[in-house]
Amino acid sequence: MIIRDGGSIRREFQDFVRMINFKSLPLLDNTVTEILLEQVLGISGTLHMNNSAEGASNRIANLDGNLRYCIREDPERVIHPLCNELPFHQIDASEITEDGEIKDGIFHVSHNQRLYILKVVNWPLYWPRDTDVIRKELESLACFYNVPNIVHTAGAAASDNPYKTFKTRNVSPVVIGILLEAQSGGSRQQAFAEHRTGMYPWRQWPIQIGSALSHFHEAGWTHMDIKLSNVVRDAEGTPY
Which part of the chain is the Protein kinase domain (predicted)? Predict the structure, then answer.
């Protein structure tokens, strides 16, 4: 029995994809099109290939006469909220400078010489339900803007739809991330790890955090991810 390694199978499939004549396919505009292939005996000429497929040794390409396709919008595509869904000030993403990554999907950035935290929609472990989480987060930020001890949003990082098919057509801009006001004191996790709690009025922290949670609960909201790394401090040590 001959066992082929995954790398060679992947390369063979990539070669096959390059042979497909995509101009012959009715791809969907302004989104990601998923193409589903099925081998059906007796169906001929359904999937059109480029001239490079003629005489090719690619096993998948040699099935093209029996391949039938159907298309749909990719259910696993990254879904960006539309800017007009949200009441936030929009900042052009092309004017934002990335200064460093904090963790997956969260960055130190700057705009007009001001520092922010950018939380992007399209992070490495993205799953479509993450967009609903982002929408909820944006909704809560709008509800609690200027409430003490709750981090404030500076706006939405806006961009052209990354799936825009034609540059000349009007397509609503999308939110690629949330811009939050940066706090210079770092996280509570850092304060404990660096044994710097004595520098701050840490005995007030539980009261201040409890006060913020009280505002959430009175409005019918909950916070499901309270941990040291998610509580940041300003220069005076006030938690958010």
Answer: 88-240
Pairwise CA distance, residues 217 & 224, whole Å: 12
pLDDT tens for residues 186-208? 665 666 666 665 666 666 777 77
Burial of 167 per CB tally in 10 Å (0-12, 13-18, 19+): exposed
DSSP letter (8 states) at residue 149: T
DSSP secondary structure letter of residue 62: G
Domain architecture of the chain: domains with CATH: 6-73 (no CATH), 78-182 (3.30.200.20), 186-239 (no CATH)
pLDDT tens sequence across 90-134: 999 999 999 999 889 989 999 998 889 899 999 999 999 999 988
Q: What is the pTM of this model?
A: 0.72
Asked if 240 and 232 count as a contact pair (C-beta separation under 8 A), the reply is yes
